[in-house]
């Protein structure tokens, strides 16, 4: 089981790491961000798009943020322009931080039920597990982006949670 302090820490970590990746990606031309680099979602831009889409989808399940209007299959093209993608990321990260700051232990201990269009059914899981998945999913895809950026010559910050300043 996790507690509200853990959730707040992971929300801060999410914002810190996204800032690092977007700052590093800003040093590349748009064609380099969109270049197929052999990752699951192919490019930096597509992977960051999927991640923003997924964060919005999970926040729609865990909080009051509206769900994205596009389906999973289109998550890599959720936002076309780089500046719009950066703005969307900043807005979502602020929402995640505000949600984490309001979260109480009783909410974490509950059950989360949602309709998964990907699975085509209703899903029910412990809320704490869904929250852990939410942050784990972010970390997984940010690791892919970090590798692509590094290979492209950009210099994102270290990804170790322990390196985050308090």
Produce a short descriptive summary.
This protein is 57% helix and 7% strand. With 166 residues, the chain is mostly helical. The chain has a single domain (4-163), classed as Up-down Bundle (Four Helix Bundle (Hemerythrin (Met), subunit A)).
What this model shows, in words?
The chain is mainly alpha-helical. The protein has one domain: dinb family like domain (Four Helix Bundle (Hemerythrin (Met), subunit A), Up-down Bundle), CATH 1.20.120. 57% of the residues lie in helices and 7% in strands. It has a two-stranded antiparallel sheet with strand order 1-2. It is globular, with a radius of gyration of 16 Å. The mean pLDDT is 96.
The helix/strand series, from N terminus to C terminus, equals: HHHHHEEH
* Chain-averaged pLDDT: 96
| Beta content | 5-15%
**Could you say which overall geometry the principal axes of the C-alpha atoms support?**
globular
Report the biggest beta sheet as strand number plus sense, adding barrel if it closes. 2 strands, antiparallel
Total strand segments: 2
Low-confidence stretches: none
Give the number of domains: 1
Sheet with most strands: strand arrangement: 1-2
CATH superfamily: dinb family like domain
Rg from Cα? 16 Å
Q: From the helix content, strand content and strand pairing, which structural class follows? A: mainly alpha
Second CATH tier, the architecture: Up-down Bundle
Examine the coordinates and then state which fold CATH places here, giving the name of the CATH topology.
Answer: Four Helix Bundle (Hemerythrin (Met), subunit A)
Percent helix, as a range, is 55-70%
> Total helix count?
6
CATH class: Mainly Alpha
The first-to-last residue Cα distance is 23 Å
């Amino acid at each position: 089981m996790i507690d509200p302090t853990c959730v707040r820490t992971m929300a801060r970590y999410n914002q810190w790491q996204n800032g690092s990746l977007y700052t590093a990606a800003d040093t590349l031309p748009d064609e380099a961000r969109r270049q197929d680099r052999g990752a699951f979602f192919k490019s930096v831009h597509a992977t960051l798009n999927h991640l923003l889409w997924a964060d919005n989808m999970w926040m729609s399940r865990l909080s009051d943020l509206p769900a994205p209007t596009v389906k999973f299959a289109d998550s890599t093209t959720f936002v076309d322009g780089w500046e719009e993608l950066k703005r969307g990321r900043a807005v979502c990260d602020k929402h995640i931080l505000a949600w984490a700051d309001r979260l109480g232990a009783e909410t974490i201990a509950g059950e989360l039920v949602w309709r998964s269009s990907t699975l085509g059914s209703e899903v029910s899981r412990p809320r704490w597990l869904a929250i852990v998945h939410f942050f784990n999913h972010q970390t997984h895809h940010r690791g892919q982006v970090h590798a692509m950026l590094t290979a492209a010559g950009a210099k994102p910050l270290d990804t170790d949670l322990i390196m985050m300043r308090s």
